[in-house]
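does this look right to u?? protoporphyrin IX containing FE version
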Amino acid sequence: MAGATSSRWPLAVLKAWHAVLAGGFLVAYLTADEDTYAMHQFAGYLVLVAIVLRLAFGVLASGESPLRLPRPSWRRMKEWVATRKGRHPLFAWFAASLLAVVGLAALLGALADGASWLEDPHEAVAEASLWVIGAHIAFVTYMYAGRKWMARIGARLSSAPRETLR
Ligand code: HEM
Ligand code: HEM
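got this back:
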C-alpha cells in the first residue's frame, strides 16, 4: 500500500504542475496588454519557473519515473506506424514541442522585459505556441475520449439489426 502510494506521487506532482502551467499560460495570454502588464508579468514568470522546474526534475528523475523528460524518436514513430503497438509516439512529440515552444515564449518575454526589440519575437512565439496547444488539446481529447466514443458508436452500429431494402 505504502509502495503504491509513494509511486503515485510523481503523477500527482505532474498533474498539479500541468494545472499551474496551463493556468499560468492562459492568464499570461489573456493579460498581454499594457493595462494588465503586472498580471501578465506575474503569470509569464510563473510559466517560466514551471518549465525550468520541469526540466530540472526531468533531468534528475530516474529511468521509469513519469517525471522523466519526454523523448520523441523518429525510429519509435516508424515502428509504431508499422505495428500500431504501444503508446502513441505523438504523446512524446507533443510534450517535447510544448515544453520547447511555451518555454521559449516565456523566456523571450522575460528578455523582452529589458530589451524591447525582443517584444515582436516574443509575441510571435507566444502566438505560435497557441497553435501547438490547440493541437495538443485536440490530440489528447481524441486519444482519451474520442476513440472510446467512436468505438462505442461502431459497436452500436455493428450490433443494430440489418434492415432489408425490399
Ligand atoms: C484543456 C486543456 C488541456 C488538456 C485537457 C490537457 C491534457 C493533457 C494531458 C491528458 C496530458 C498527458 C498526456 C499523456 O498522457 O502523456 C498533457 C500533457 C502536457 N500538456 Fe496539456 N492539456 C491542456 C492544456 C495544456 C496547456 C494550455 C499547456 C501549455 C501551456 C499544456 C502543456 C502540456 C505539456 C507540456 C504536457 C507534457 C507534460 C510532460 O510530460 O512533461 N497543456 N496535457
Ligand atoms: C508563456 C507565457 C507568456 C505568454 C503566452 C505571453 C504572451 C504575450 C503576447 C501575446 C504579447 C503581445 C501583446 C500585444 O502586443 O498585443 C506579449 C507581450 C509582452 N510580454 Fe508576454 N507572454 C508571456 C510571458 C512573458 C513574460 C515572462 C514576460 C516578462 C515580463 C513578458 C513580457 C512581455 C512584454 C514586455 C510584452 C510587450 C508588451 C507591449 O507590447 O506593451 N511576457 N506577451
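The pocket of protoporphyrin IX containing FE (ligand 2) is lined by residues 25, 28-29, 32, 34, 40-41, 44-45, 47-48, 102, 105-106, 109-110, 112-113, 119, 122-123, 126 (CB under 6 Å). idk if thats expected tbh
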